[in-house]
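Form P-L/3: holo structure prediction, ligand zinc ion.
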Amino acid sequence: MLTDLLEHNVRWATDKREEDPNYFRRLSSLQRPEYLWIGCSDSRVPANVITGLQPGEVFVHRNIANLVHRGDMNLLSVVEFAVETLEVKHIIVCGHYGCGGVRSALDGHRHGIIDHWLQPIRDIAETNEQELTIIDGHDPRLDRICELSVSAQVASLARTPIIRSAWERGKQLSIHGWIYGLSDGLLRDLDCTVRGTSRTETPEGQGDD
Ligand code: ZN
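OUTPUT (holo model):
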């Protein structure tokens, strides 16, 4: 029921004000998140909830299958604003296992305009065919494509003029590739972080992030 949502909102806002009378005044006067999240639209992967970040702490862009189309004015506007105005330090491209977008891209059926949107997924599957054919089982193969896609989107984002220009001007900015498990609620770092112009592998549990 929609009224439930509105009633919940009133309770939430009241609780927040009781905890901290200046909470909304402070939040409305300034937005300075350190992170830009580029994730899937899937309702089970909400950036704030799974990372424990509060309102004001993460700038979010979501689309089906968390793709970085380099002609996507919506995404590029978000990235430019995040990098140039908010001056985020980290961009996280986050995919998830069991992604319906990835599954739809490869099921051989026609779905409509989404087929055009998901073309990069088919390209990734084709490029990595050799690796994928030796994986046993359809779902594990799709999950590997989810991982490969995240790495490809990180690389694609790193090549945009917005990011190149930021790095040329010495801005501190890293792009990370993560993947989320719907079945265990855990995020995994895919170790495809890009900092500046050099690609670095960050061993698990190490590094500054
Ligand atoms: Zn998805």
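COMMENT: The domain at 32-199 is CATH 3.40.1050.10 (Beta-carbonic Anhydrase; Chain A).
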